[in-house]
Design goal:
- The structure holds two protein chains of two kinds.
- Chain A is an alpha+beta fold.
- Chain A contains six helices and four strands.
- In chain B, about 20% of the residues lie in helices and about 50% in strands.
- Chain B is elongated and about 90 Å long.
- The two termini of chain B are about 40 Å apart.
- Classes of the chains: A alpha+beta, B alpha+beta.
Amino acid sequence: MDAVLRAAAIYVFLLLVFRITGKRSLAQITAFDFVLLLIVGESTQQALLGDDFSVINACVVIATLMFLELGLAYLKGHWPRLDPILDSTPLIVVEDGRALQDRMAHERVDVSDVLAAARERHGLVRLDQIRFAVLERSGGISIVPKEKA
Amino acid sequence: MPERHAPLEIDQDLVFQRREWRVQRVGWWALCLFVVAALAGVFGEGPISRTRAEGTGLSAEYDRFIRTGRPTRLTASWSPAGGEASLRLDRAYFDRVRLEQVTPAPLQVEIGASDVRLRFAAGGARPFTVVVEIEPLGAARLATELRTESGHVTRIVQLAYF
């Protein structure tokens, strides 16, 4: 029972923290963000397993996490209103080459983040070459170049 | 309501998004409070957590907030009349913690139906001080009366986090 409660508590806490910190918290923008995510994983490991390092305990923890994930997916399927609450919604941050500063500030995205995504995926060099930049629910930025939209 | 933003087929919902930003701002303060509370000792090991209980002739220093899997120290001081001292803890308390270490080492530990008695040789300096290191076995509100051989009593209450 202990392992199930531990896994559930950590799952709910992580869900809350990552929803509070916003879409970009999981986006691995810099190398340090990646290191931070590793540290979060490392910190939760001990709390998930406690002092029981048996295989069955690990199996119980994994099964609980997967069950919670499946359960939430099922609930989102049945109640579509739950979907944005748990996973947020996509947000247009650049429209017709114009940066929507208010939205970008709220989501802690700047023009250089958008231009980096535009360079990496489409070889674009200027903001006015972008028709849409969308901050996805995953925290990534997807780019629609002007000529493609 | 989600809006389809032509020509993009995405469910952008600005009303929901603004509400989300407001909730996130509140969440940031909650997160900040959580960290400040942790620094203050609300989750154990801090100035709010460490406290002192003064009973009749017996004082105890302990943590109000303790954590499962994390040992904590309970220090009891009193002045025994003779060369032998004993400290009793409630059995219900003892059953919910792991006794890690007792300093000085007790001469005897008697586990009774209602309490646990630790007996010590108490020659030397007064007051006589015993340090009991315990670890909670699970989330619980732990309470016990500490009683000495001469009837000194003090009560401690601890909250053990999961």
